[in-house]
What does this fold into?
Amino acid sequence: PLLSLRVITDTPREPFPASPKVLFDIERQRTHLLKLAGFLLAHPNKIPRLIEFARRIARARKILATALVTLINKL
It folds into this structure.
């Protein structure tokens, strides 16, 4: 058996505030801060959307953690 849980952080109405390549380096599994800083210097109007995106990520992380704990407690 396999179970997959996923939370969604972007919607058509609230897309990523920048390209996924700017927001996350898949190989390093983290944000490349210089790339992100360069993007924000070139697009300062995106900063409020980035802050809101970070808040959505935090909420999503909390929802996923709660779901995992609930699921494990029911096993």
Notes: Residues 7 and 61 are 8 Å apart (CA to CA).
